[in-house]
């Protein structure tokens, strides 16, 4: 026995020692063998390999996945799934190749512009009953269905349709008590001051085109103006960003933004002045409407928002926090209208020095650089979001307009053209961007909101951006409008016109409508077609005088 033990110890076989040493108290521990596994070895979609992510695929792609060993066919049904981003399962057929080591998955029909995930779990077995070593996940994004979703109509009919359908957001969906525009289609009683100004201008366009009767349009204006005069909270004549459309009480936009918003108030006054100029009959109702609008217009204390006679205007004021936000309104952005109206006021005007030093920053708003072959007179590099060239210019006519800092027709055409050319160049490789699919501005994004621009491009296109640029880029904007309607219309066109935004890279289509995005579609389309809102706003004698006092020149002044 000793010789055997010595032999075992010499070889270092511990287990044999234990088996030979009968007097030992140690017990043996069985070793469980590691389970056998097999591996993934190749993937092709429609015969091509590009990793684990594929875009612009057809509705019935052939997805061939190869493994290191033949598969057990009975395990595939439970271990392979195909589902959309929303979790909806997609049916598919399976076939086998290469002695069952390759499985070919062919969907029976995927929806266009949809993201799918093909998942393979470790429950997949080989013919020898081994398990797949690691799970697989393949991302698939289907291509655009280029077929026309609606019957072809003339461009003029299409523009009529877009104006009329989009107008419904402000007229049909206007708040029942106040008539003001809800912030968005899910806002309940929350109405928006600036968006209501845009909506007022949209309703005027609708009356002019016969979409709404003159009597109905007048009645809506009376409801809106009466509410603003008798119920809506005001602070030194200025309105909050949001209000309760039933009571007129402030709905805070943020913790400190619970009082006056001078920019939003300016958009509202832009609309009200336009309405005053439109409803110009001598009858009692329209005479009273104009008087009531003047009460609101004359009540705004523009000069008070200089915060102690500074040569700049301030955006916000809170009744309990005062100037806590302390945000100056300086250019170049969407707020030119604030300074134009401040200079146009006959009760609380601002001097030219406030415009020059506050808004224009003594000329620092100038840019002068060239982007995509286009010289940009003002503002941030590559122009910023397109609402810069739209919100103030719903009423201010940029055609032939200039001052010490820029020609505004040149500025706005350059801004829109750079935005267009950026999308065509598509430096980030976003899916779908093209000469027919462009337009970056503030809009909803998936699970949020952002001000998209060439320097903040998250892959989201907003129809309002290109459509409201019709006065500046008519051919490019019309091409985009046709694409949005005819090609994407089954996903993008709804009860109040185009939904707010979409993303073709990580497919997503908004279900939302926003007043500040719907309004420019109607107003700028009408300005492109007839100049109606431009002509009305620019006809106001106070506006003419105020803009001249700031140094503007134009055939329309």
Automatic annotation (TrEMBL):
Signal peptide: none
Gene3D superfamilies in UniProt: 1.50.10.140
Keyword Cell membrane attributed: no
Domain Glycoamylase-like stretches: 328-540
Domain SbsA Ig-like: 56-137
Keywords: Signal
Protein name: Beta-glucosidase
């Amino acid at each position: 026995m000793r010789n055997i033990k010595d032999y075992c110890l010499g070889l270092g076989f511990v287990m044999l020692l234990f088996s030979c040493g009968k007097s030992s108290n140690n017990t043996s521990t069985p070793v469980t063998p590691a389970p056998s596994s097999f591996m993934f070895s190749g993937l092709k979609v429609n015969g091509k390999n590009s990793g684990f992510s594929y875009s612009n695929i057809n509705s019935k792609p052939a997805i061939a996945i190869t493994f290191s060993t033949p598969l057990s066919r009975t395990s595939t049904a439970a271990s392979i799934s195909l589902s959309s981003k929303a979790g909806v399962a997609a049916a598919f057929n399976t076939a086998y190749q290469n002695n069952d080591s390759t499985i070919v998955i062919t969907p029976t029909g995927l929806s266009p512009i949809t993201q799918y995930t093909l998942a393979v779990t470790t429950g997949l077995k080989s013919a020898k009953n081994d398990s797949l070593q690691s799970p697989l996940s393949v991302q698939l994004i289907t291509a655009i269905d280029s077929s026309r979703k609606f019957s072809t109509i003339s461009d003029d009919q299409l523009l009529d349709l877009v104006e009329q359908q989009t107008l419904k957001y402000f007229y049909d969906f206007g708040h029942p008590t106040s008539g003001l525009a809800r912030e968005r289609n899910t806002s309940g009683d929350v109405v928006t001051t600036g968006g209501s100004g845009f909506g007022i201008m949209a309703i005027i366009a609708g009356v002019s085109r016969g979409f709404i009767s003159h009597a109905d349009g007048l009645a809506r204006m009376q409801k809106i103006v009466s509410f603003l005069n008798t119920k809506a909270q005001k602070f030194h004549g200025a309105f909050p960003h949001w209000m309760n459309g039933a009571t007129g009480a402030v709905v805070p936009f943020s913790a400190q933004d619970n009082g006056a918003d001078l920019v939003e108030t300016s958009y509202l006054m832009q609309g009200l002045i336009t309405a005053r100029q439109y409803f110009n009959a001598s009858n009692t109702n329209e005479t009273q409407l104009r008087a009531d609008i003047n009460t609101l217009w004359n009540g705004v204390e523009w000069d008070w928002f200089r915060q102690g006679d500074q040569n700049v205007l301030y955006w916000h004021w809170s009744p309990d926090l005062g100037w806590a936000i302390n945000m100056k309104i300086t250019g170049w952005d969407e707020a030119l209208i604030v300074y134009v109206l401040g200079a146009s006021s006959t009760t609380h005007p601002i001097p030219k020095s406030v415009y020059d030093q506050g808004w224009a920053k003594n000329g620092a708003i100038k840019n002068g650089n060239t982007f995509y072959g286009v010289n940009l007179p003002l503002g941030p590099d590559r122009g910023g979001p397109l609402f810069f060239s739209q919100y103030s210019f719903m009423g201010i006519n940029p055609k032939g307009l200039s001052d010490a800092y820029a020609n505004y027709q040149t500025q706005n055409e350059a801004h829109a053209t750079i935005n267009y050319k950026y999308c065509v160049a598509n430096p980030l490789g976003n899916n779908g961007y093209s000469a027919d699919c462009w337009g970056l501005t503030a809009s909803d994004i998936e699970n949020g909101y952002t001000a998209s621009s060439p320097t903040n491009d998250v892959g989201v296109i907003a129809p309002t951006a290109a459509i409201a640029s019709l006065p500046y880029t008519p051919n490019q904007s019309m091409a985009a409008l046709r694409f949005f309607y005819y090609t994407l219309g089954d996903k993008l066109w709804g009860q109040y016109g185009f939904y707010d935004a979409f993303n073709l890279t990580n497919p997503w289509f908004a279900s939302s409508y926003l007043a500040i995005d719907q309004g420019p579609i109607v107003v700028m389309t009408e300005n492109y077609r007839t100049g109606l809102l431009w002509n009305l706003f620019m006809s106001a004698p106070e506006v003419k005088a105020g803009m001249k006092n700031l140094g503007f020149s134009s055939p329309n002044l």
